[in-house]
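ARCHIVE CARD
CATEGORY: sequence design from structure
SOURCE FIELD: tokenized fold
FIELD CONTENT:
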């Protein structure tokens, strides 16, 4: 299975330009079965206020971002997981991720752990952490700051995820290193797709750290993007490696868990 990330440089509120950037990167990219794109890749990350976010929010799957993703899935014969600013039921806004393939929308996840200014416009996610049969693997989805809550990757892995697709807009410096731990402690593949550049709005400025990463079940970094530039990477993985939770002769990461001893 070939998996990749598209580390882009979104421009705030410039959906058309941001979709074009992805279109161009995909046109020049090697083939992949599964692509991961950044969180909020078509809208930008920072909003002056809720009203500004509202202006960019889209229904799923009718909105232009999901429509573009499905058309790329058909054109490039691949599945994609990508962030979208979603207008959900009752006009609530969600920082969401969609999973699509050539058949259309396959999954929707609404970010559970909102970060910083997101709390000013987004509603915390109200859907289960999804694990989908996608591109020949069981793919779990989480978004950016969810990395800081090990329960999320664990929940996805216990539900059978072999690969965790992780659209991100990373701000804190530790996430690429932490994803080695998320992969290792669950023996899964992780694909973190970050963005680069910065956003400025409402007197705030946020810079993004790039360094998108694919990590394997032994914690090995299989691919990494640069800190400051857009980048595309595609690597071959065998998702079945994630089904083997053994650690040496005597241990099994899931078999040795002691939930009776945890207070969570
Ligand atoms: C983040 O969750 N976008 C930092």
């Amino acid at each position: 299975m070939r998996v990749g990330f598209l580390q882009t440089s979104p421009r705030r509120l410039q959906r058309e330009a941001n979709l074009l950037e992805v279109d161009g990167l995909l046109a020049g990219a090697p083939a992949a079965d599964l692509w991961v794109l950044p969180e909020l890749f078509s809208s930008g990350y920072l909003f002056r206020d809720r009203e500004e976010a509202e202006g960019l929010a889209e229904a799923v799957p009718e909105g232009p971002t999901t429509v573009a993703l499905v058309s790329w899935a058909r054109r490039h014969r691949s599945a994609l997981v990508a962030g979208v600013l979603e207008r959900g039921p009752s006009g609530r806004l969600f920082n969401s991720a969609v999973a699509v393939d050539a058949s259309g929308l396959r999954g929707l996840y609404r970010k559970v752990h909102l970060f910083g200014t997101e709390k000013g416009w987004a509603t915390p996610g109200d859907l289960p952490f999804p694990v989908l049969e996608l591109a020949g693997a069981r793919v779990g989805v989480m978004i950016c700051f969810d990395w800081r809550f090990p329960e999320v990757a664990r929940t996805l892995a216990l539900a059978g995820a072999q690969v965790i697709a992780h659209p991100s807009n990373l701000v804190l410096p530790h996430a690429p290193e932490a994803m080695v731990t998320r992969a290792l402690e669950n023996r899964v593949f992780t694909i973190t797709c970050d963005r680069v550049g910065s956003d400025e709005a409402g007197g705030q400025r946020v810079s993004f750290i790039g360094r998108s990463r694919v990590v394997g079940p032994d914690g090995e970094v299989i691919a990494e993007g640069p800190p400051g530039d857009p980048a595309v990477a595609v690597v071959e993985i065998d998702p079945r490696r994630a089904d083997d939770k053994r650690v040496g002769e005597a241990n099994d990461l899931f078999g040795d868990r002691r939930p009776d001893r945890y207070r969570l």
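CARD ANNOTATION: The chain has one domain: 2-242. The longest helix spans residues 15-27.
SHELF: design records, drawer C
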